[in-house]
Structure formats: structure tokens, C-alpha cells
């Protein structure tokens, strides 16, 4: 690991590291916020999945999360959202969002040699964090939009590895969305069971008991241009009702998909995770 | 005034407007945060002078200021920091910082027809805000770096127009700094009395009694690459000591010049202004 940036922030440190990601066969960067208390005792970790940290400052670093994390004594890890580098192929432009690694393990050439964001977020990065920082081993997942999809799908499949999961405006049902279908077919091949493995609604439908001990919190703005059809929010609400899944889903009147929406509710997410992590 | 953006944020509204600025002979944009309470009763205003709001998201919108302003019931006006448009000349690149209008009234051609940021911030914009929004008429100034220079110089010259002034890492003594001297000579001509009129240290030295009722708060990181020589912080501290000026100047150990520094201390600045505005 190479420390690229190290800045004082709310009495703690906001840092950026680069490292070679074996899972992705490329070098990756991530940002991390270390609360002041980590100098005295181990702290729990939230993985905060949003837009890229590289090259532009990410949503993660802007939303005031550090203030609350400093106060509550939580480490925030802010990974990049896709593999990067000259050797990493880009998706064709008509498949949309080159920024989005979709938090899956690609099986199709040429993507399968690098696009393993699922394993990177769930396995490689937590191992690195536990080796390198003074953390308790307790961890939670949080994400925005496509990062919300990543947080939900990873936590639903590994509920015993995470104390809680939360999402802002998550993509809930990508296998039913034309725009996502294009990307899923590039990464995973034609429509099959593999798509359902990366779809929060389908995962809950197939195994609703998996999350009966996992605290789930979702905030969604009703003025979000992607809500509800493109995000599949209604399908998520329905599957939770149908199987009596105790997710807390808040529809926030007047809010959109932006930084201002995330900033307005991030304190409640961190307090939700804090209760589960301690 | 044309409303360009309008987003929910901490129960209030984060908006962007464009308008024709007569003072600057060009169209300008500014951002404004309206706290929830403004729907019920008039609110005081803080002018927050930082980097550009256009085209990139500014520091102003990132630092969590809206959370505290919503809570305290303060309107935050975030102006652009220079005139813009095809007809507005750019400074030569070797004069540095094309982003910086220096918050002065230029007297030299070709700058003098547009670079009147001093009058824009002190006169035109407050008149517009008072006409358009439900505000009390009480106002304060706050700024970062060059914006801190703007806030200090304007408030020192018009202490009865502002309830308080604060700055993060302000440029305190530009007339003594080679890099600023280049810009000042472009805007104001060769070194003369006009330079001293836009220099917080010189203004205080010449009329220390002007600020004896004006609350002043400054935070400065000791790891800021511009501290102390380029910012002239020591000269400001000395002039305050010499003339018994009651400015509160905090040197913050470990902090740099960045968003993280501003975010870490912005709550204390808003609470400082709140006490003076109410």
C-alpha cells in the first residue's frame, strides 16, 4: 500500500492509498477516513460505495460523513467503483456508464480478467483493511445509487459478514431494467440465473430468510428522476411486504438523487450503522 | 433573476440563480441556501466567498454548511468569485489565478469595465438578495483564502454594514506578496495607495478603530502550504496585537488549506455569526 494523501479532518485523518488489487489485476485507489479514537482503540468499519474516487473528488468525501464518523468513532472506507488502468477494457459507450463496475464478477471476455468488483469489495479490500488498520473486525455496507445496488446485493448474500446495510436511492432491480440489461449481458452473457445473482429484489425473493437478522435501511427521494421505475424501488418495497422483511424504507418528499439528498440523511445512516456495529 | 437549479437540502432549498450584474457588465450566477424557517419569518444572511460556483461544484456547496444553516435559520449566499463571459477579459496566465477576481474594483484597462467584484459583493448582490428573498437585513461575511481576503477587506471598510466577519486561511497582506503584486499591478496600476485599500493588514493599521465593534474570527491551519509567509498571517496577528484589535485568530495544528480544513471548523464559524446576527 502506498499512501498518496493524508489530511487532517475533524480531528482524524482523511487518507488516499493505492495498492495492487490481485482480484482485479490492476492498481486501485481507495480513500479512508480514520476517526481520532482509532489511535486509542480498534474501530468498526463502514464500506461506503459511491462514485469514483479517482480522478475527481467523490461524493463520498463531500457529504459530511467525516464529521459524524469522527464523533461516533467509525472508519469509513471509500473504494473506487471500477477497475482502472491502460490494460482494463472500457465498456462500449452504448452500454452506458463507464464509471460503473456494477459490483459483480464478470464471466464474459474481455471483462472477466478485471471486472471482479464483487470479490474486491467483499474479500480483497476487507482483508487489506483488517491487516493494515486498527479495526475491530465488525463491518457494515452503505451505498448510493449503483453503490446501493452493490451494498445490498453483497450484504444479502453474506448477511453474517456484515452488521448492517444501508442505501441511498439504490438500484434495486437491475435485471428488469433495459439500461442495466445491456451491461449485464456484456458482463454475464445472455439472460440467465447469473443476472438474478446481482439483483437485490430477486435475491430477497429467492431467500427472504437470509436477511431476517440483518438491519436494512433505505432512503429514497421522491423527486429522483430515476424513481421509481428505473431504480425498481416499488419492486423492493413489494418483496419486503410479501415476505415480511423488516427493511426500513423511507420515501423522502422533495429530494432528488444528488449530493444534497445524501448529505441531508447521511447522519441517520451512520447512527443506524453505529447501533449495529457496537 | 432566473432560477437554474432548485434542490431539497436539509429541509430547505439549495438553489442556483443567474442574473445580469450591472456592476460587472456580464451575467453572473450565484448559489443560495434557504433554511426551512424562511417560509415563516425573515432570516439573516451570510455571504460565503470561496471558489467559483460555475462551472464546477464549489467548495461552498461541499462543506456541510447547509446542515448548520438549516438548523440555525441562516440564508447562505455563495457568489461566483469573478466576472465571466465571452466579453470578459482573462488575466494573463503568468499573473496567476484566473479564477480570482481579487474582490476589488479594477481601475486599469481592459479590466476596469468588468472587474468590479468589490462593488458587486458589497452593493449590487445584497440589494438583489434583500429585494428577492425573505431576509432580515442583518448580514455577515465569511470567506476562504482569496475569499477570506474579500470578506476581511469589505467588512473592515464597512463595519456598520456587517454584524460579523470570519475567514478560513485568508490572504491577509497581498500588497506584500510577489504573486499578488503581479495581479494588483494589472488591476490597479503600479504600486500606490490603491493597493493598500485592498489589504486587510494595511487597512487595520491605518484605521484600527474602525473594527472595535466588529466581531472577527479567523482559522488557519499550520500545515497550509501558504502559511504563514504567502498568506501574511503573521502580519495580521502583529497588527491585531499592536492596536489591541480583538480578533479571534486560531492556528489549527495539523490542518491544511483544503475542503477538509474548512469542513472541520465551519460549524464554529456559523455559530459565531449566529450570535452576532441575532
From TrEMBL, chains A, B:
UniProt EC number: 3.1.2.12
Superkingdom per UniProt: Bacteria
Listed name of the protein: S-formylglutathione hydrolase
GO molecular function: carboxylic ester hydrolase activity; S-formylglutathione hydrolase activity
GO biological process: formaldehyde catabolic process
Residues annotated as transmembrane: none
Lineage: Bacteria, Pseudomonadati, Pseudomonadota, Gammaproteobacteria, Alteromonadales
Family of the protein in this entry: Belongs to the esterase D family.
PANTHER family: S-FORMYLGLUTATHIONE HYDROLASE, S-FORMYLGLUTATHIONE HYDROLASE YEIG
Key words, A-Z: Hydrolase, Serine esterase
Function: Serine hydrolase involved in the detoxification of formaldehyde.
Any one GO cellular component localisation term in the record: cytosol
Reaction equation(s) it catalyzes: S-formylglutathione + H2O = formate + glutathione + H(+)
Keyword match Cell membrane: no
